[in-house]
Amino acid sequence: MRREIFRMDRASAAALLARAPVVHLASTTPEGEPVLRVVHGVVVGDHLLFHGAPVGEKMDVVGRRAVISAEEVVASIPSYFVDPDRACPATTLYRSAQVHGTIERIEAPHRKAEMLAALMKKYQPEGGYAPIDAEHPLYKKAVAGVLVLGVSLERLDGKAKLGQNRTPAEVGRLLDLLWARGAPGDAAAIELVRASNPSAALLSFLEGPADATLVCAMGEADADAATALLNGTYWCKGTTAEHIRRSLLGSSAWVGARDRSGAVVGTARAIADGARHAWMYDVIVHDAWRGRGLGRALMRLLLDHPAVRSAETVLLRTRDAMGFYEPFGFRTRSVQRTEGPEIHEMILVRTGARGEPVCPLASARKGT
């Protein structure tokens, strides 16, 4: 790799290959003709494996050198983020992984069955089929007949081009512009770039109380901890932990906070249509953090999230936190009277919501 600052650690490279919807296989035939195929690959142990019929082009590459690669676009960076006139600074933030090796034919029935089981788990995670076993009457013949090929992960390399070659001030400006643009995936891109550039300049939209780090795009790794925070709250009563988890991951916007140890200490989410309406849910901070301004910081961040900021109305429901939400402009619209405490439906009506696409950004065009 030409620039070591972009090198991805081995575990991250393997994880990228494992989650990629497809991988690209490049090799040659015995006659030296190039072969380029897209295959459904799975990582099983120390190999990347794929399957096919025991005839055709794939058979020609058995025992030959090959490269298997996968990539993810993190964000496209327009030229005017950097320069108001020149086109040259346009670039792409991305992650990629490559494995170099010799294509092996997997013969052992149990290994072939293991590969097919991993393939089904990846592409049909909901199940709905009998577990795959090499001796199962449903699969014995299929396992024997399928071609399974693989490449050892011994020569695995990964690249993450996420702004590591920029100064902390430049990275900070880039993240501010990504947040202002707010295209799909920009919030997640911000978190990836932050993780690769810990010395980046402080971002004003992520300011919060000392010892807490605000996160503008929570993810799979945070889901269990956030679910634990919400489990047992009155508004999640009767909801299973799995449904809480799925609601977090399915939200239009999901922000949160971590303490210095990395533990999740706050979470808030919203469902939004991207233009007119948004509903806020599950705003909560850990007991130890209450009264320290973390909840207010989460609210500011969520209201300014690209998925929420353009909404003309934002709604939520609460039975006891009206005073917390009112300083943000929320007012009680209706009261639902039940056998228990009253539930207040609150609404924030915003004029001049930023609903127009921001491209190019005025600040970037001015070079600010």
Describe it for me?
- By secondary structure, the chain is an alpha+beta fold.
- The protein folds into two domains: 157 residues, Electron Transport, Fmn-binding Protein, Chain A (Pnp Oxidase, Chain A, Roll); 123 residues, 3-Layer(aba) Sandwich (Aminopeptidase), CATH 3.40.630.30.
- Helices cover 26% and strands 30% of the residues.
- The protein has eleven helices and 17 strands.
- The strands form three sheets. A seven-stranded mixed sheet has the order 11-12-13-14-15-17-16, sandwiched between helices.
- Strand 16 and strand 17 form a beta hairpin.
- Helix 5 packs antiparallel against helix 6 and helix 7 crosses helix 8.
- The longest helix is centred in the first third of the chain and has 15 residues.
- The protein is globular, with a radius of gyration of 25 Å.
- The C terminus is likely disordered.
What tags apply to this protein structure?
368 residues; alpha+beta; Pnp Oxidase, Chain A; Aminopeptidase; six-stranded antiparallel beta sheet; 17 strands; 30% strand; globular; disordered C terminus; acyltransferase activity; Pyridox_Oxase-rel; Split_barrel_FMN-bd; acyltransferase; GNAT family N-acetyltransferase
Question: How does the SSE layout of this entry go?
Answer:
Elements: E1 7-8, H1 10-19, E2 23-28, E3 34-39, E4 42-44, E5 47-52, H2 57-60, E6 65-77, E7 91-102, E8 104-106, H3 109-123, H4 140-145, E9 147-152, E10 155-161, H5 168-181, H6 186-196, E11 212-215, H7 223-230, H8 241-249, E12 253-259, E13 264-272, E14 277-285, H9 294-303, E15 313-318, H10 322-325, E16 331-336, E17 343-349, H11 362-365
Parallel strand pairs: 14-15
Antiparallel strand pairs: 1-10, 2-3, 2-6, 4-5, 5-9, 6-7, 7-10, 8-9, 11-12, 12-13, 13-14, 15-17, 16-17
Helix pairs in contact: 5-6, 7-8
Domain N-acetyltransferase: 213-351
Organism: Polyangium sorediatum
Keywords: Acyltransferase, Transferase
